[in-house]
């Protein structure tokens, strides 16, 4: 699908972006492993989360309402999954593959997981190696680093794992594998990454403890089905936040946005950039903080984005790069080498496409430097590299590009934000 974006001199409205991707994935996983019904509302019907749900269906879990935002998952209990008859294809979703490897490693059956071209290139050794240390038997290309991966379920042992990377996917994989071990499984991370797995495990009744950068879980819990209300995804809301901030004449309200502090790093950065936004009607739902965000056009100031905030805004760096083009001064993005192993190399993709749009940007191994403010010329075709967040970031840049832009391969947006274009049209 080709997307044509024309410049727009005014943006206004009140919108609700779809459900949080990370929480939606976890609701299916824990709902499936729990005893009894789990009712989910606000589920993200993006392809990534649907792929997680289809995989659990193939392992014998009944899910009512799949494809809509309201679902009922009939949990089969920790040891109730069945061997799937065919390969589990997880499409573009790294979260599905990495978290599910933790669950599959401890089953008493055989599975093969695979994904699309992008997912088949992403490093899995970061979860496969620690799982093997716990007794897992996993085979794949490149010594078990690349999908397709074959998992021969084994009984797993508990252990302490010190992760070299601040990755919620790695932490969650080990904690989920820990459900199948006897005793305590501990994961220590170098900086705090999103903690939805920990919060939800606790909510489902697991014995889960957090002590600074350490999370630990007791094996063989009895998880009980729950009601889950998924908040709007702050990562999706970010495209609209930045669209409003860089537009000359904008006022938007984004409703019901999840503001878990391990996810809301973008708000810390936007405060440093002197963005005009307000949090309205702050509340708590299923242990997750939520608010409406009111945002207006702003004169942004440059800042340095690096260090411990990076895992808290890792998915927002492409759209923050767009914001940086309009900020006064030099914005530095550093310590973000993880961006190179996302759905595409997001540093290289953003640098290449911003340059194509007429923006000056310096590429660094761990980020980029963007002087500002700069006008965005546009008038060209851009490439998403099959990455949903690159496609949506470029679309937002297109709204202020003098000559608009065309994004040639925008189908990927449906992996996380199926109604992105519809919402963009309404504002
Ligand atoms: C996710 C964790 C992040 C993020 C991804 C979703 C999750 O990846 O980029 O979109 O739901 O756990 P890492 O934890 O590997 O950085």
Question: In words, what does this structure look like?
Answer:
With 427 residues, this protein is of the alpha/beta class. The chain has two domains: 3-18 and 231-426, Enolpyruvate transferase domain (UDP-n-acetylglucosamine1-carboxyvinyl-transferase, Chain), CATH 3.65.10.10; 21-229, UDP-n-acetylglucosamine1-carboxyvinyl-transferase, Chain (Alpha-beta prism), CATH 3.65.10. The protein has 13 helices and 23 strands. The strands form six sheets. A four-stranded mixed sheet has the order 2-15-17-16. Strands 4-5-3-14 form a four-stranded mixed sheet, with helices on one face. Strand 22, helix 12 (388-398) and strand 23 (405-407) form a beta-alpha-beta unit. Helix 1 runs parallel beside helix 2 (47-58) and helix 3 (94-104) runs parallel beside helix 6. The radius of gyration is 21 Å and the shape is globular. The two termini are 22 Å apart. 53% of the residues are buried.
